[in-house]
Design a protein that fits this description.
mainly alpha, 4 helices
């Protein structure tokens, strides 16, 4: 497939199929954003736990040992979900839902449009751009 063909629908592919694959691609984009938020949650939770530990140490140094001991015992290093730290949540998401979503999106494109990506968007671009105008070129 040449670069000029990678965003052109194969012969015989109907509009509804292109639209369906566009929606599946859009859904995958949302999953990618959700995954990014999950990684941000992982990073922020880890930072919070480490910073909490520093605060607990400072409470202890300031003479508030009983309170420091309670916070350390009940919260420092605590699971964010039953039996899980955030790295385990991220791994389960990546290995389960995310991996399955990516695989099936690829399977659908391979089966229906020879693996081509973003056909719906490419056709939208072709429809919306002003032919012959700078900044509206079909390709770089």
């Amino acid at each position: 497939m040449t670069n000029d063909d990678e965003h052109v629908r194969p012969d015989g592919v109907d509009d509804l199929t292109v639209e369906a694959l566009g929606n599946i691609s859009e859904a995958l984009e949302a999953v990618e954003v959700a995954r990014g938020h999950l990684y941000a949650f992982h990073r922020m939770s880890g930072t919070a736990d480490l910073t909490l530990g520093k605060g607990v140490d400072q409470l202890r140094e300031a003479g508030h040992g009983d309170l420091a001991d309670r916070i350390e015992r009940e919260l420092v290093g605590r699971n964010v979900l039953q039996g899980r730290w955030t790295f385990q949540v991220v791994e389960e998401y990546d290995d389960g839902y995310y991996a399955t979503f990516k695989e099936l999106e690829q399977v659908a494109r391979d089966a229906l449009v020879a693996g081509r990506r973003h056909l719906y968007e490419a056709e939208m671009k072709e429809d919306r751009r002003t032919h012959g105008r700078p900044g509206h070129e079909r390709r770089p």
